[in-house]
């Protein structure tokens, strides 16, 4: 688990094809690796990866085809800057929100414009994630815990303060940038809980609608 508070910006040094997937090397910059051991988790742009080698100034990690398909890591190349966060410990401050490091989908930056000293972003999420994104709720963008300012269909708005622009890769975003999205874990589990026994049925028959909620006692007549 992570907090969504970025600890450092690193850089992709090498990507090596390995039997259909990829092994990558991340230089970690100012991230302290003194307490990191082989097998520990580090979030790279919000994707939880396992450190399989620790040469000293960074780490190697394997990236599966599932991760490549479900995240924006496929668009990385040597020299790409990435957000980094080590897994939280029982003594960590939970400054953001609980982040699993399991990307739900890839969004697209639609626009950004300066608003006083901050920046206003509009990001479009995949249609299937829209129902999990709520005004003043939490969302993770490339591993950064953020508050949703407004929602318009699948498009959500963010206000990014100067510190976040300086200390994360958000300062390098432009219209068209693909970003990893992780919705609030509570929203995902709440949907499954509402389904009750129907959660075991095929996906096509488990869509939550107003009629479903009324039939199952969640709405008053």
UniProtKB/TrEMBL annotation:
<keyword id="KW-0686">Riboflavin biosynthesis</keyword>
<dbReference type="InterPro" id="IPR001783">
    <property type="entry name" value="Lumazine-bd"/>
</dbReference>
<dbReference type="GO" id="GO:0009231">
    <property type="term" value="P:riboflavin biosynthetic process"/>
</dbReference>
<protein>
    <recommendedName>
        <fullName>Riboflavin synthase</fullName>
        <ecNumber>2.5.1.9</ecNumber>
    </recommendedName>
</protein>
<dbReference type="InterPro" id="IPR026017">
    <property type="entry name" value="Lumazine-bd_dom"/>
</dbReference>
<dbReference type="GO" id="GO:0004746">
    <property type="term" value="F:riboflavin synthase activity"/>
</dbReference>
<comment type="subunit">
    <text>Homotrimer.</text>
</comment>
<feature type="domain" description="Lumazine-binding">
    <location>
        <begin position="1"/>
        <end position="97"/>
    </location>
</feature>
<comment type="pathway">
    <text>Cofactor biosynthesis; riboflavin biosynthesis; riboflavin from 2-hydroxy-3-oxobutyl phosphate and 5-amino-6-(D-ribitylamino)uracil: step 2/2.</text>
</comment>
<dbReference type="InterPro" id="IPR017938">
    <property type="entry name" value="Riboflavin_synthase-like_b-brl"/>
</dbReference>
<comment type="function">
    <text>Catalyzes the dismutation of two molecules of 6,7-dimethyl-8-ribityllumazine, resulting in the formation of riboflavin and 5-amino-6-(D-ribitylamino)uracil.</text>
</comment>
<feature type="repeat" description="Lumazine-binding">
    <location>
        <begin position="98"/>
        <end position="194"/>
    </location>
</feature>
<feature type="domain" description="Lumazine-binding">
    <location>
        <begin position="98"/>
        <end position="194"/>
    </location>
</feature>
<keyword id="KW-0808">Transferase</keyword>
<feature type="repeat" description="Lumazine-binding">
    <location>
        <begin position="1"/>
        <end position="97"/>
    </location>
</feature>
<dbReference type="Pfam" id="PF00677">
    <property type="entry name" value="Lum_binding"/>
</dbReference>
<dbReference type="InterPro" id="IPR023366">
    <property type="entry name" value="ATP_synth_asu-like_sf"/>
</dbReference>
<keyword id="KW-0677">Repeat</keyword>
